[in-house]
Amino acid sequence: MYRVSPARVYGGMTATERGRQRRAQLIDAAVLLMGTRGAAETTVTAVCKEAGLTSRYFYEQFRDRDELLRGVADHVFTTLESTLVGAIVPGVADVGLVARAPIEALIHLVDEDRVLARIVFVESGAEPILRSLRNDTLSRMTDLILDKARLFFPIEDSAVPVIHLAATMMVGGMSDALRRWLDNEIELSVDQMTEHTSGLFASAAAYVLTADAGRHAS
């Protein structure tokens, strides 16, 4: 997925198109390096070498390494979010099914694209820019859970703080669990990870719904 094609002359391409091509090459090279060798080794020199481009072309596209990292972050976190959002099944009122589809999609993404997963869940902690963008993404994921919960289930405004608490705990815990799974600290198969994570999410959601129903009964 992140194989970097060598730079070459493209007949009929405008200067803008060639610039976009080089930018994509540089971002792909940075993603590959960061996801395999780590953030510390993702230098401008290393990225240019991997992309097969000179530093002149790098600085035509990016002011510095930090701007490149923002491009990397935009790529990986957009992929992460689109995977989750695209897996949500509309019109489903079963808590377990609502939770399982996006969790299954996320775990399969992590398993199948270890380069991207390592950037999101491991290397992003070593780079302030990536860490900030990762935190923004986790916040959006928390808000997404809150929005979908209110869309699919009859939840009153009074229950929103509890849902927010549960969503924050689930998203933060899931992020750390996936990091540990990548490092083989959690020894579960893909299917086991999907099954147990979905069950835990469903249990938390059921608690929120039960607590909300209890408030109405009282």
Automatic annotation (TrEMBL):
SUPFAM superfamilies hit by this protein: Homeodomain-like
Electron transport recorded as keyword: no
One matching Pfam family: TetR_N
A molecular function (GO) term: DNA binding
Superkingdom in the source lineage: Bacteria
Keywords (A to Z) from UniProt: DNA-binding
HTH tetR-type domain sequence ranges: 20-80
DNA-binding region of this protein: 43-62
Ranges in coiled-coil conformation: none
InterPro entries according to UniProt: Homeodomain-like_sf, HTH-type_Tx_Regulator, HTH_TetR
Regions that span the bilayer: none
Name of this protein: TetR/AcrR family transcriptional regulator
